[in-house]
Specification:
The protein has 6 helices and 37 strands. By secondary structure, it is mostly beta strands.
């Protein structure tokens, strides 16, 4: 009994602490809205345009902590977050109906504890970013991306000394006169300036490298060019893990300071007119997971040091027409590789099993328009399951690649002009049923398709040696091109077949075959057709009346 009194006193304390923890963990439990902030939010709403009535819950009758897009501190009831980004940001046809616009009222200044403000994917119709935002000293997160802002970026944003996240990207017409203010944001971790015009600021690199905490930097499409070469000598980004410099116009060699960014995980230098060789120094970036260098003017071989990048998942070098030599076998060491893009280069030589030894995670293989030759054993079982294969104008033949049969996840198969001189194997069309797009044109592939039901969205088998009667189509086919083959017989098996679902077929090209007979009067089953080419066959008779029902038809070539 001597210990009972302390336990009795301790129990209420435990209950009190438990209730406090519960309140802190459940949002808006108290529902106590600060009246001053409530009125400020209503004035803010009044200045906005809101055609979809997204802010309909913002009314005097409701607790502002329970309003849509408003988050309050669970204890004090003060507004701390406004989530006003467009809810349909990735679906343009819907997002345009849900955009906020109008004016951004300085009533926001009365939200003195606001730490999070998101206005992305709205449309403020070229209005300037309000300079008073720089007086909102509690902000830690500010997202104004893709919101239709224009004009100069206000230097007052440099007063937001506690800011961790700033995204001003993808606002057409937004520009920066100088970036001296950016160095004041010493706690900034994420800076998004994609498509913000920076060409007036020669010393952008020095300014940004003075932010010691910066982890992600997005500078795609900023108008950076070779006139800023003086800025490209040195950068002190000790924490940088993500760097996007794509779609600028540097037109010089890849700067050496990049190779000092040893914490980098993602590096995108695409579409910059970078020239010179791909440096062996890329092998020093041991944490690199994504390296994209496509659409530049790089030349020379792919450095073998790339094989040292054991974390690499994406290697995209395509559309550098002067990259030459062979595909280094050291790429076979990249056990985490998911995407290998080397198309549109001058690479030569053979690709063998050695190149894919550890590639169990590979999903995308793009080697189109190269002089590479695929040389693997006929019984080869790859370690990977591809989703996308683009090997057009790359030698895959003369035999039809048997290893394709092992691929169960493929959605895109592009093997046009790949020098295949063979019949489609018996397993192929059943195996290909779930593939979305098949491009096999400009080969010498043969086979009889009269018992095949084509189910792919886009199919191009033109300029091959297919023969016999026409294949059947499912309602999923949107584009069918089987021109320049040797198909014969009536056109009616293809056209007359009635679908259980509405046909999606938009483009039909069966020209330059040996088809004969009259056109059946069944075109009512194909209401989505926009282009038809039946020319250079042996068709006869009159144009059927049902063709008049094809209201979407833009082009038709029916006879010679």
């Amino acid at each position: 009994m001597r210990n009972s009194r302390p336990m009795i006193l301790l129990f209420p304390l435990i209950c009190f602490l438990s209730s406090i923890i519960s309140i802190l963990c459940e949002p808006n439990t108290l529902g106590v809205c600060n009246e001053k902030e409530k009125h400020a939010l209503l004035r803010f709403k009044q200045a906005l345009s809101d055609p979809a009535n997204r802010l309909s819950s913002w009314s005097m009758d409701e607790d502002c902590c329970r309003w849509e897009a408003v988050r309050c501190n669970n204890v004090t009831g003060r507004v701390v977050e406004l989530h006003l980004g467009n809810p349909h940001d990735s679906e343009y046809e819907f997002s345009i109906n849900f955009t906020l616009g109008g004016e951004i009222s300085p009533a926001l200044l009365e939200l003195e504890f606001l730490s999070y403000l998101n206005l992305c994917w709205n449309d403020f119709e070229g209005r300037t970013i309000p300079s008073f935002l720089g007086s909102m000293g509690s902000l830690r997160y500010l997202d104004l991306s893709s919101a239709g802002f224009g004009g100069v970026v206000p230097h007052q944003l440099g007063n937001l000394s506690t800011l961790r996240y700033l995204d001003l990207g993808y606002n057409s017409g937004l520009y920066v006169e100088n970036l001296d203010w950016i160095s004041h944001l010493s706690f900034l971790k994420y800076l998004g300036l994609g498509w913000v015009d920076l060409h007036r600021e020669v010393h952008w690199l020095e300014s940004m490298s003075m932010i010691p905490s910066l982890s992600e930097l997005i500078l795609s499409g900023c108008g950076l060019d070779r006139n800023m070469a003086s800025s490209l000598g040195y950068a002190n980004f000790t924490s940088l893990t993500v760097l996007y410099l794509s779609k600028n116009n540097f037109n010089l060699e890849i700067p050496n300071w990049l190779f000092n960014l040893t914490s980098l995980a993602i590096l995108n230098l695409s579409e910059n007119q970078f020239k010179g060789q791909i440096s062996e120094s890329f092998g020093q970036l041991k944490y690199l997971e994504s390296l994209k260098l496509r659409w530049n003017s790089l030349h020379g071989p792919i450095p073998t040091s790339i094989g040292n990048l054991s974390s690499l998942r994406h290697l995209v070098l395509g559309r550098n027409t002067l990259i030459n030599g062979t595909l280094p076998t050291s790429l076979g060491l990249l056990s985490n590789l998911e995407n290998l893009g080397a198309g549109g280069t001058s690479l030569t030589g053979n690709i063998s099993e050695v190149h894919f030894t550890t590639h169990s995670k590979l999903k995308v293989l793009s080697i189109f328009e190269t002089s590479l030759s695929f040389h693997v054993n006929s019984n080869w079982t790859p370690p990977f399951q591809l989703e996308y294969l683009e090997a057009s104008s790359c030698k895959m033949g003369p035999k039809f690649p048997a290893w394709l049969k092992t691929q169960k996840s493929l959605s895109y198969l592009f093997l046009s002009s790949s020098r295949i001189v063979d019949a489609t194997p018996n397993w192929f069309w059943k195996w290909a049923t779930s593939i979305q797009e098949i491009l096999l044109f400009d080969n010498q592939i043969s086979g009889e398709l009269s018992q095949v039901v084509l189910n792919n969205t886009i199919i191009n088998l033109s300029s091959n040696r297919f023969s016999g009667q026409l294949p059947l189509l499912s309602s999923n086919v949107v584009v069918l091109n089987i021109a320049n083959n040797s198909f014969s017989g009536q056109i009616s098996p293809l056209i007359y077949r009635k679908m259980n679902k509405r046909s999606k077929l938009e483009v039909l090209d069966i020209s330059n075959n040996a088809l004969s007979g009259e056109l059946s009067d069944c075109w009512i089953h194909w209401p989505s057709l926009t282009h038809i080419n039946l020319g250079s066959n042996n068709l006869s008779g009159e144009i059927p009346n049902s063709m008049g029902s094809l209201v979407a038809l833009a082009k038709q070539f029916l006879y010679k």
